Amino acid sequence: MYIYVDVLIITSIYANFFLLKTTARLTHSPLRNGRCLVSAMAGSLFSLVILLPRLNTLSLLIIRILSAAIMIWLAFRGKSLRELYRTGLIFFFVCFIFAGIEYGLSVLSGSQNMLWHNSVLYVNISLLTLVISTIISYAAISFFRFYLDGKNASDTKYTVIVSQNGRTISFSAVGDTCNNLTDPFTGKPVIVCGKSSLSELFTAEELRAVLSQGSGVHISGWRLVPFSTIHSSGMLPIFQPVGVVIKNAENSIVKSADVYIGVVDRDMEYAVFNPKIL
After folding, report:
1. In angstroms, rounded to a whole number, what is the distance separating the alpha carbons of residues 90 and 22?
2. 30 in the same domain as 116
3. Whether 161 contacts 244, CB under 8 Å
């Protein structure tokens, strides 16, 4: 069987990009497309071991762990070692699901263009099959994420630490499973806070401009999203900070979060977010 290196590399980059994005979704971790692409390209280089003579099990295990560690570090650097370790375990879980579905579809389609060598699966499959396997895998894992999110609820107090414009602020927050507000374009959750919580990040004039309905969408970095509560509905200004960290006040566990911050035109004792962020 012939192995086309260009097909191997391009397919590997595509698959790695999807695997990393899915891992980020499962762990609610921020992951920029550029950083994800760099990590995916680095990981694709390890697929070239399929061209080497057969390696022993220990060597393959070391290569697999090294490749995963490099990819996870490149994609999610900034996390603590403990978080990187947990993210790495989720990454292996995602790889297992995706590889199984892709292999299964290849078998069902009767493809003979498959080769398993040095723990690398080379499948000369059509673009359609690759896309279908990606969609099925993402749907399965998204359902699993939805199931886990539904089981997370907490009345614990938290501290939200926000970095933006070279400054860092913090404010108190509580988990609220009724807060299902997300950004409609990205699907990312929104932490809702009062205007006083952001007074150290933005001037009073900037906050007034943002909170004047309609004009906030023209301010760089801000946009409006629709919201609805039992008592009211309207448009909420949101922005995505450079970084958001949530600290559990009871056990001091710190978790980074890929979220938007929304602000209301009043003061709030506690900001609110859906515990699924954690």
Report:
1. 9
2. yes
3. yes
